[in-house]
Amino acid sequence: GQQVMQIPQYQHVQEGEDFTTYCNSSTTLSNIQWYKQRPGGHPVFLIQLVKSGEVKKQKRLTFQFGEAKKNSSLHITATQTTDVGTYFCAGPSNDYKLSFGAGTTVTVRA
Amino acid sequence: DVKVTQSSRYLVKRTGEKVFLECVQDMDHENMFWYRQDPGLGLRLIYFSYDVKMKEKGDIPEGYSVSREKKERFSLILESASTNQTSMYLCASSLGLGQPQHFGDGTRLSIL
Predict the structure, then answer these.
(1) Beta strands at A19-25 and A71-76: parallel, antiparallel or unpaired
(2) Nearest C-alpha neighbor of B91 from the set B78, B104, B73
(3) How far apart are CA A66 and CA A55, in angstroms?
(4) How far does A63 lie from chain B, in Å, by closest CA?
(5) What was the pLDDT predicted at A1?
(6) Residues from chain A contacting residue B55 (CB–CB below 8 Å)
(7) pLDDT tens-digit profile of B27-60?
(8) Interfacial A residues in 43-72 facing B (CB < 8 Å)
(9) How many CA atoms lie within 13 A of A33 on its CB side?
(10) A85 shares contact with chain B (CB less than 8 Å)
């Protein structure tokens, strides 16, 4: 079945630095979604990318969908303490269920 | 805004009990989902429903059943709770299959 993999599993970042987390699918995706889960909270939908090569920005967050629609990335610039949490990517499988990656857990050093 | 409400934030039950977890959404979404979330294992789909009285098994349905008698409500049932079912349970809904999902706050279930 479809697998969605995320790297790294953990990201420890100095406040103010940039970082990128990556998502790779074993199959071509019709869309890729990103979610954020704060500590003690529930996953919250951030964004959906649909087109090959699509790039979307939300303030300091930049999301990209690969040309082959099998990978995606999330880049955060000037990391802040509010960015702490786990970021999940997810893509629909052939039966339209969402396959979630295991997530990248981000901690920030002030 | 979509509101997905789970009946309990924390629940403690005993081995062998029948446990009901309730979820209600207020946006007339067709699709509803139950996941469990465990450290290092991410989100795993237990069951989902794409219409009233319709259900499909997810990746880990063993030991669970579901009920969807009304569009807005999706219940997860642990027929005979076991300690390995101690977990965080998350309910979600979506307008279309494969589309963004909206999650409830989760129920942290402990089976003693």
Answers:
(1) antiparallel
(2) B104
(3) 9
(4) 16
(5) 64
(6) none
(7) 999 999 999 999 888 899 999 999 998 999 999 9
(8) 43-45, 48
(9) 21
(10) no
With 0-12 / 13-18 / 19 or more C-beta atoms within 10 angstroms meaning exposed / middle / buried, residue B16 is exposed
Rounded Cα distance between A21 and B41, Å, is 18
Location of structure tokens 């509803």? B32
Residues recorded for chain A:
110
Query: Locate tokens 């979307």: which residue?
Result: A56
- pLDDT tens digits along A37-81: 999 999 999 999 999 999 999 999 999 999 999 999 999 999 999
pLDDT value at residue A3: 85
8 Å CB contact of A100 and B42 = yes
Is residue B5 classed exposed, middle or buried when 0-12, 13-18 and 19+ CB atoms within 10 A define those classes? middle
pLDDT in tens, B53-98: 899 999 999 999 999 999 999 999 999 999 999 999 999 999 988 8
Say if CB B63 and CB B34 are below 8 A apart. no
For chain A, first and last CA: distance in Å?
Answer: 41
**Could you tell me which residues come within 8 angstroms of residue B91 by beta carbon, excluding any fewer than 6 positions away?**
B4, B6, B21, B23, B32, B33, B34, B35, B74, B76, B103, B104
Distance from CA of residue A91 to its chain's centroid?
11
